[in-house]
Amino acid sequence: MSNESRDNLLAHDSFISADNLEAANFNNNLNGNGNPNVNANNNVIRDYFEQSSHPIAAFFFIAFRLGALLMYLLGSIFTDNFTLVFVVTILLLAFDFWTVKNVSGRLLVGLRWWNEIQEDGSNRWVFESAHPNRKANSGDSRLFWSVLYATPVLWVLLALTALITVKASWLVIVAVALILNVANVYGYTQCDKDAKRKWATGMAAQSAFGSLGSGASGFIGKAVTSGLGNFFGSR
């Protein structure tokens, strides 16, 4: 084979390799590996967890809620045992309720609530809140409040679906989910209102006492200065 023929063959192979590489990249894009929307979503999730002040708390805050919803919706696909789906979903809902009430709210938004039973049988709501000067993370706050309010809405839609399809046994799961989620919504809503009212009142009182103290100090200082000036002037 002549050198000219060999050069033409090599050039042809290089051209084919370049075409194959371009075709492979195109196929990857079709398969979603190069989908800009997927990459953008992955970047948003990664950026949030990198910027979050409490990424572990945020992860479990989402994981338990999402796990309960997915188990309710998809559990029957993987198993015909309704009891298993029922138990696992209720356990995930219980884990979510306890975690949100005692951990997630305290770390993500600086709030915590609980309900005490008094000796006379009455209920007493107790609210705790972090100091307003606490360094808050806006991303954590948005995630907490949006997911907290959105989850009961999803369970309401599932309740309507269970009613339309006349699935009484599945409606029991939805009822438990609504009770636990609405309890956290009510508790944190009232806790947030109590915190804003308490800190606003406290800061107003502190500002008033500060102004009064500074005014009294200035008045006393002027009186003392004037008295000493009159005393030495008379001498």
UniProtKB/TrEMBL annotation:
PANTHER family attached to this UniProt entry: GOLGI APPARATUS MEMBRANE PROTEIN TVP23 (PTHR13019)
A family per Pfam: DUF846
Entry keyword annotation includes rRNA processing: no
Membrane-traversing stretches: 56-75, 81-100, 143-164, 170-189
InterPro entries: TVP23-like (IPR008564)
Keywords for this protein: Golgi apparatus, Membrane, Transmembrane, Transmembrane helix
Organism lineage: Eukaryota, Fungi, Fungi incertae sedis, Mucoromycota, Mucoromycotina
Protein name: Golgi apparatus membrane protein TVP23
Sequence similarity: Belongs to the TVP23 family.
Highest taxon of the lineage: Eukaryota
Cell membrane as UniProt keyword: no
Localisation: Golgi apparatus membrane; Membrane
Topology of the protein relative to the lipid bilayer: Multi-pass membrane protein
Function noted in UniProt: Golgi membrane protein involved in vesicular trafficking.
